[in-house]
Specification:
about 5% strand, five-stranded mixed sheet, about 775 residues, mainly alpha, about 80% helix
């Protein structure tokens, strides 16, 4: 039954996001460098760095800072900054195991890198695309992208990039079930990181090699690599990597039925994950504690751990392994003979597996245990159905395994055959080369003998001619030397006199030039200083005037906005009161009069009774409609119960079978001012109405959270979305109202939308001091 631990062993995707997500000190330092209102490429790079660091731990801040970076980059037409922002969003969805959404962002970024002809950045983006395909279980597509990245990194001799590509390729082959090739790639990556002396990456690769050795049942090697990984991580104090090594090492002891040692390692790993802020690791530790308790028959304790694991997964918005955890809870209830509760969890597990796409192994576990449950409850027809499903999926898994083994053996045979043929051809070529070389040596020896004989014949004649020439040359050289000596003496005397004259002239000229240079430099410095002072004074005055003008304009705009919003709310309140006190009272009086007529017509058996009764129903429906309109214009719940209850009441009124609306909030820790609550209510009301009217969505999530920095509101749907780049220039009245209201509160609002992934509206209102 050790397979319950199988899916929760941590196998790292070594992206830059995972390596830096915990560095909160760096985040604080970077935030202090932000200069509001400043528009330059440094601010874009700074915002992208912050978004990148947040991408593994905080989706709201990731989108917030990435969108700010994109806004500035668009103003500067800074394509590199836009690409980096898209990659930060892609990293966010990689950490959330949302492959399709991550893929869309990375592909958009890769097209920008191609336009900029930045091959190394393009290669890094291809590696990330490979990771997205791997999450989507599209291993062949992942390999195509990773092989392209590999060629580019080899071309530029980039060892770091090549190492990360090899690790990701190793993950792909591991998912394909070819662990031998996966191990080869991880060993290549380990050699590169040892050359780079990157201790952190070495520890990660050692951990992944231990995982692969474990899957091939080579437990001694698995223990060796896990232990090396833990020691390496301890040398740099990386609590997260230490915890991952301990978590994976516990599986070896669980397989060997050494549960006390396994539990000890899990508790140590959990503590390290808590200290390093790695909530995904905490979830896995808690889940594995539940799995071990299932093995030991402690079903109540196991269910408690497993439910806690699901709660953490929900907080992190991850579906990785959730279906298998749900079926384990169902199995625990089945063992406790709580069959109704068990059935509920098995149904939920099957729905989760179908919705988010689980491995065949997970479906097999669900079908097998569901069949056991149905047999226990005498539902033999359902038991037979799920048993048949379990047998079919087991045969499929076995068949795929056999096909993989046959393909591997065939590949090995073909490779060995080619290697043997190459060796034979090499030997044949070597023999022929030796024969040709021997023949060439013999020919060269004959040529050398002939040349030696010819040299011997001509040497004697040359010696005689050289002697005669030497005598004539000696006499000629002697006379030439005598003439040269006399001429040199005369020339040297004349040159000495000229040199003295030239030196005097140069000294005089140098002094004159030096004086002129000193005068020119002094005048230049004086003029430059005067110009700079004048320009500085003028520029400062202009900037001061612009600043004063901008402050005046901003104050006037804010005053106008406040007056418009206050007037609008007063008018809404007046109309609502008129509807309630005026039209509402008249409709009520009409209804009461009709009630009297209705009672009289009943007693008199009048033929008008059906008409009067129908008219009463219409008047009653009109009264309700008037109250509803009055409430929408100025809801009583907002005045009496506050923002959260008003939003919930508004949602309850519009919820339909087609659109599921979910409100998530931790309540507001600090009360908001009434005008802030009113504006937020109107903005959320407008956003929800836009979704209902235009988005064609089936799911709408609203989250309202408050922290020390202020209030954050997220409205996300899965509808058709819209093109924000086109809409921005021609916004409708609704979007303009939202922008003006949020601007009045000195907040920010951003729309992230596409035709395939719906729309995300993120709003942040800063806390008032």
């Amino acid at each position: 039954m050790h397979k319950w631990l199988k899916f929760l062993l941590l196998f790292l995707f070594l992206s830059a996001t995972n390596a830096q997500a915990q560095n909160f000190r760096t985040l604080d330092s970077l935030k202090r460098l932000i200069v509001p209102q400043k528009v330059d490429t440094f601010q874009v790079a700074l915002l992208n760095k912050i978004a990148f660091l947040y991408s593994a731990v905080d989706s709201t801040n990731t989108i917030l800072f990435a969108d700010k970076a994109i806004d500035i980059a668009n103003k500067l037409n800074y394509k590199k900054g836009i690409a980096k922002s898209l990659e930060a969003k892609g990293n966010l969805f990689i950490s959330k195991t949302n492959g399709p959404k991550a893929l869309s962002y990375f592909k958009e970024a890769s097209s920008i890198w191609l336009t900029l002809n930045d091959e190394l950045s393009y290669a890094e983006c291809l590696r990330n695309i490979g990771q997205a395909y791997l999450i989507m279980l599209q291993q062949n597509n992942a390999l195509l992208e990773l092989e392209k990245a590999e060629k580019i990194f080899i071309k530029y001799k980039n060892k770091f990039g090549l190492s990360t590509v090899y690790q990701t390729i190793g993950n792909v082959y591991r998912d394909k079930g070819n662990n031998e090739i996966a191990i080869e790639y991880f060993l290549k990556a380990l050699k590169l990181e040892e050359d780079n002396k990157d201790v952190k990456s070495i520890g990660s690769i050692q951990n992944n090699l231990g995982r692969l050795m474990n899957e091939t049942k080579n437990y001694p090697e698995a223990l060796k690599y896990y232990t090396q990984s833990i020691q390496t991580s301890k040398s740099i104090g990386d609590l997260r990597l230490i915890g991952i090594g301990q978590l994976n090492l516990c599986n070896i002891y669980a397989i060997q039925l050494n549960y006390p040692k396994a539990i000890e390692l899990l508790l140590d790993a959990k503590e390290n994950f808590i200290k390093s802020g790695f909530t995904r690791g905490v979830q896995i530790c808690i889940n594995n504690l539940g799995a071990i308790n299932l093995r030991q028959g402690n079903y109540e304790t196991a269910i408690t751990y497993l439910k806690e694991s699901l709660s953490i997964a929900k907080e992190n918005q991850t579906q990785l392994g959730v279906a298998l955890v749900q079926q384990n809870i169902g199995y625990g209830y089945m063992k406790l003979k709580k069959y109704d509760e068990s059935l509920k969890w098995f149904v939920e597990a099957e729905a989760t597996a179908n919705k988010y796409g689980a491995e065949p192994f997970t479906f097999g576990e669900i079908y097998n245990h569901r069949s056991m449950l149905d047999s226990s409850t005498q539902n033999f027809e359902s038991a037979l159905k799920y048993r048949s499903k379990y047998i079919a999926i087991t045969e499929k898994i076995s068949g795929e395994s056999v096909v993989k083994q046959v393909n591997e053996l065939k590949t090995k045979y073909d490779v060995e055959k080619k290697e043997l043929l190459i060796n034979l051809l090499n030997k044949t070529d070597s023999i022929k080369s030796l024969e040709i070389a021997n023949q060439q040596n013999a020919i060269n020896k004959n040529k050398f003998d002939l040349a030696t004989q010819q040299l011997a014949l001509t040497a004697a004649g040359l010696q005689l001619a050289e002697a005669d020439l030497q005598l004539a040359d000696d006499s000629l050289q002697l006379s030439i030397k005598n003439e040269t000596i006399l001429q040199n003496r005369l020339d040297s005397t004349q040159k000495e006199e000229r040199i003295k004259d030239l030196n005097k002239q140069k000294q005089i000229q140098a002094l004159e030039v030096y004086r002129k240079n000193i005068t020119i430099v002094a005048l230049s410095i004086f003029v430059v200083l005067i110009v700079l002072l004048g320009y500085s004074f003028y520029n400062r005055r202009i900037l001061q005037q612009k600043a004063n003008m901008q402050l005046a304009i901003a104050a006037q705009q804010q005053k106008a906005t406040i007056e418009i919003i206050e007037a609008e709310e007063k008018e809404r309140k007046r109309i609502a009161e008129d509807l309630h006190d005026g039209v509402g009272q008249l409709m009520t009086a009409a209804w009461l009069n009709l009630q009297v007529l209705n009672e009289e017509s009943q007693t008199e058996n009048s033929t008008q009774f059906p008409l009067i009764n129908k008219t009463m129903l219409l008047v009653d429906e009109s009264c309700k409609e008037v109250r509803q309109v009055s409430h929408n214009m100025m809801p009583n719940a907002l005045l009496r119960k506050g923002l959260i209850n008003s939003i919930q009441e508004f949602i309850n009124q519009i919820n339909t079978g087609k659109l599921s609306i979910n409100l998530q909030t931790d309540e507001l820790r600090k009360p908001l001012e009434s005008h802030v609550e009113t504006i937020l209510y109107r903005v959320i009301q407008e956003s929800v109405n836009n979704v209902v009217k235009h988005a064609q969505a089936t799911q709408l999530d609203i989250s309202i959270n408050q922290d020390q920095t202020g209030v954050t509101v997220m409205v996300e749907d899965n509808g058709v979305g819209f093109n924000t780049s086109i809409t921005r220039d021609t916004d409708g009245i609704g979007l303009q109202n939202i922008r003006s209201r949020i601007a009045y509160l000195k907040g920010t609002v951003n729309w992230d939308s596409s035709n395939t992934h719906g729309t995300l509206v993120s709003i942040h209102i800063p806390a008032t001091t």
